[in-house]
Design goal:
Layout lengths: L1 H14 L2 H33 L3 H8 L33 H19 L15 H6 L11 H13 L13 E4 L6 E4 L6 H6 L1 H75 L6 H14 L1 H6 L6 H12 L13 H10 L29 H18 L9 H12 L5 H22 L10 H4 L3 H4 L7 H11 L9 H6 L8 H11 L1 H10 L10 H7 L7 H11 L1 H12 L5 H14 L2 H4 L2 H18 L18 H11 L21 H6 L5 H11 L4 E9 L2 E6 L2 E6 L2 E6 L2 E5 L1 H9 L1
Antiparallel strand pairs: 1-2, 3-4, 4-5, 5-6, 6-7
Helix pairs in contact: 11-13, 21-22, 21-23, 24-27
């Protein structure tokens, strides 16, 4: 085959141009020279290491002192031999192998010389001749043991052409039997028997066996842990499996409940859209069933929202003929039931002492559960209320009807709805009427149509009060203390206005005129005119006590004590003086009599009388200083009252003016007499009392005890508490019930 290749190459070269072959040969020689230069350089470097060059110096710096390498010196002692090898010659190539290769080449050359029939082939200029010439043939790798190499070496020595045998040729062999691979010569390889007794071989073997045992032990422990982990995982999966089954069962249970709910809701919707009418009672039964039987689903899925489109049509039909002003409370029970069913009770409601307008926006009804109820209120109830209040005027009787309507619905409607109703409808109309009110021309007192809204509106009414006080003050410019109209206007506002505002109004418009009237009142024990005193006493409970006591301290008591002094110096009848003193003292109400200025004035008068009785000399305006204070005068007076009266001439007793007779007709048609005074006079004639009940009010009016009946007055109408309800009564009927 090699002969044929040579012939083929020679043929191709003969067919090529001479210049092409010369260039190719020149390029090949250049490559060979470059490879030889590299090999020579590597050889010189290796020879330098063996001759004590850089490699030896590095070993000596690391403590190498000669001999074998390693900690125990068991390694190689000679440096590796560096020899230049032919192209494609491996490290394991020995001299014997080279001889074999040379013999093989001779045989190949002989075979090439044999005549071979040449097959003429067409030369292809596109074929690269270098691929066939330069490409080395791939040799098969052969792995041999040391014994096989030794045996081959012995055979070669026996057939070596009569040459003397001096042991195996020096061949470099890689020994892989120890911990590390080492390079040894062929003569250093021991036989099998030597290896068994060689400690250098036994120790690495034991080490390898120990490593294998440790590795197997680690694998066993790892597998044991993995087995335990798998067992734990199996237990965990068992628990999770049970939990999953429980959740599946629970899910199936919930699905069955939801299917029942869907069936109930679908049937209800079909009834609602069909010709069959769905009544409020039937719809309430459906949502009561949902709220009680399916309580969790009712709250979780907010089933109350489904009531919105269902309840509006039947509720509209239910309220179609409802007259809100005439019968305000008839639909309240049904609305309360639906508020409870739709869970709108969670909405904030004001307390009994709070007004609707005092509720903050943050507590308005805004929960999702109350949306259905809000829809019902906005679409059905509020239009009815707005229609009822559309033509309402604050000064008419519709005020009482509208107030009763809102009071009946205040615990049902959401606070936000009530607040919007007040702000959009009630407050604007009240403000307009207050601005137009004229206290001189308007016969209807302002409190009669403003006070009913105090409980519902509350603090929002404060914006009206400055206007009301200004108009009242303007009307009181020409007011006379004897006219009770001012008292009738201001008294209902005593507990409504702020105390400082009320005191300022009275101090500016009322008290100065009362002081002038009291200053001009003559004090005459023989014929006393009590009208100015009565005018002032009428303001007790309306005007502050300390302001009234100040008026008496400055305008009344100095003149009254002076009159007493003059009377005592004229040798009077002491019994008459005592009665005059006691009568005046009894005219002062308890609250006014407890004031320090009033108590001091009566104490001075009593001291003066005691001094006169004791025989002391009176000096100046009052009694002489240092007179003992005692109650001898009163004791003497009490003793004389038990004895027979003496026949002495004395001045006539001062008599209080008799109250004029007042009839109900005068109170109804005469503005100078109040309706309350007429009732008080009527009660006195019948032997009954008409007394105010402390802290009791109804619709902003003071409640009185008229005999055995509780009443209050509003616009000259008597309202009595009969059977738990306030009803208007005629005067005859009132007298009959009060006498029972």
């Amino acid at each position: 085959d090699s002969g044929e290749d040579s012939d083929r190459v020679a043929q191709r070269e003969s067919e090529l141009p001479a210049e092409f072959g010369a260039r190719r040969e020149e390029r090949k020689q250049k490559v060979e020279r470059k490879e030889q230069a590299v090999d020579q350089q590597s050889l010189r470097r290796l020879q330098g290491i063996n001759a004590g060059g850089l490699g030896l110096k590095l070993l000596q710096k690391m403590g190498y002192k000669g001999g074998g390498l390693g900690k125990q010196g068991s390694g190689i002692a000679q440096a590796l031999e560096a020899k230049q090898r032919a192209n494609l010659e491996g490290l394991g190539m020995r001299k014997e192998h080279k001889l074999e290769v040379a013999a093989g080449k001779e045989e190949e050359e002989k075979e090439k010389k044999k005549p071979v029939k040449k097959k003429k082939k067409e030369f292809n200029w596109k074929v690269d001749l270098g691929d066939d010439l330069d490409k080395p043939k791939k040799k098969k790798k052969v792995y041999k043991t040391a014994d096989e190499i030794r045996l081959e070496a012995e055979e070669e020595e026996g057939t070596g052409g009569g040459k003397a045998s001096h042991g195996p040729a020096p061949v470099s062999i890689v020994d892989m039997r120890g911990k590390e691979a080492r390079l040894v010569s062929g003569g250093q390889i021991s036989t099998i028997e030597d290896v068994e007794s060689d400690e250098a071989f036994t120790l690495p073997l034991l080490h390898n066996v120990s490593v294998l045992v440790d590795t197997a032990s680690a694998d066993i422990q790892r597998l044991t842990r993995q087995c335990a982990t798998e067992k734990d995982n199996l237990l965990t999966l068992g628990v999770e499996n049970k939990g999953a089954k429980a959740r599946v069962e629970e899910g199936e249970y919930h699905v069955s409940r939801l299917e029942s709910i869907m069936t109930l809701i679908e049937s209800t919707y079909k009834r609602a859209i069909s010709a069959e009418s769905l009544t409020l009672e039937a719809l309430a039964d459906v949502f009561e069933l949902l709220r009680t039987t399916y309580k969790e689903e009712y709250h979780l899925y907010q089933l109350s929202k489904l009531a919105g489109p269902l309840i509006v049509p039947p509720m509209r039909k239910y309220l179609h003929d409802w007259n809100a002003l005439e019968d305000p409370a008839s639909p309240v029970a049904a609305m309360k039931a639906w508020r409870w069913l739709l869970r709108a009770d969670g909405a904030s409601k004001r307390s009994g002492s709070e007004s609707i307008m005092a509720i903050e926006d943050s507590v308005a009804v805004n929960s999702a559960d109350a949306e259905a109820f809000l829809q019902l209120v906005d679409e059905v109830v509020m239009p009815k209320l707005l229609y009822a209040a559309a033509n309402w005027s604050p000064k008419t009787m519709q005020t009482q009807q509208l107030v009763r309507l809102l009071e009946a619905w205040e615990q049902v409607l959401p606070d936000e709805s009530m607040k919007d109703f007040m702000q959009t409808l009630v407050l604007p109309k009240l403000k307009s009427e207050v601005d137009m009110w004229n206290p001189r021309l308007d016969p209807l007192p302002i409190h009669s149509w403003v006070h009913p809204w105090l409980f519902l509106i509350g603090a929002q009414m404060e914006e009206f009060y400055p206007v009301i006080r200004y108009k009242i003050g303007t009307a009181l410019v020409e007011w006379h203390p004897g006219d009770l109209s001012a008292l009738n206007i201001l008294k209902p506002w005593a507990n409504v206005f702020q105390p400082q505002h009320m005191e300022a109004l009275l101090a500016r418009c009322v008290l100065p005129k009362l002081a002038i009237a009291l200053r001009e009142m003559p004090i005459n024990p023989a014929n006393q005119n009590m009208d100015p005193f009565t005018w002032i006493m009428n303001w007790v409970g309306t005007a502050p006590i300390h302001q009234l006591s100040k008026i008496f301290e400055t305008e009344f008591f100095p003149r009254w004590i002076n009159i007493l002094f003059q009377w005592l110096t004229a040798k009077p009848d002491y019994e008459e003086v005592t009665r005059w003193y006691l009568n005046w003292k009894s005219l002062f109400p308890e609250d006014l009599a407890k004031q320090e200025s009033v108590k001091l004035a009566f104490t001075r008068a009593l001291d003066m009388m005691n001094n006169v009785v004791a025989g002391a000399q009176i000096v100046g305006k009052y009694v002489q200083e240092g007179v003992q204070e005692n109650l001898q005068y009163l004791k003497v007076a009490e003793g004389r009252s038990k004895e027979e009266p003496k026949q002495t001439t004395s001045r006539p007793q001062p008599k209080l003016p008799e109250k004029p007779k007042i009839s109900i007709a005068d109170a109804m048609y005469n503005n100078s007499v109040s309706f309350k005074e007429a009732l008080e006079h009527l009660a006195e004639e019948r032997g009954m009392l008409m007394l105010p009940k402390a802290g009791k009010q109804q619709r902003g009016k003071q409640v009185y005890a008229f005999g055995k009946v509780s009443i209050y007055l509003d616009n000259r109408i008597v309202y009595a508490l009969v059977g738990g309800d306030w009803k208007p009564l005629a005067i005859d009927e009132l007298l009959t019930k009060a006498a029972k």
